[in-house]
Design goal:
single chain, about 60 residues, mainly alpha
């Protein structure tokens, strides 16, 4: 979901070399959403029950 925002946000770079190129300020929004997604994934991984982790390990 955030990749399209980050790609569209690269229009700022094109505007530095192409005069009159449209600029879309989407990069900050994309990065904020990406950080929120990473935090949610991290919290969900920390909340995995201990029994589930122990049963998924393979004894060598």
């Amino acid at each position: 979901m955030t990749a399209p925002l980050l790609l569209v946000g690269q229009s700022e770079l094109f505007a530095t070399v192409i005069p009159g190129f449209f600029i879309v300020e989407a990069t900050p929004i994309g990065f904020i959403l990406w950080e929120v997604w990473m935090l949610l994934v991290g919290v969900s991984l920390l909340r995995v029950p201990q029994k589930r982790l122990e049963s998924s390990t393979v004894a060598i």
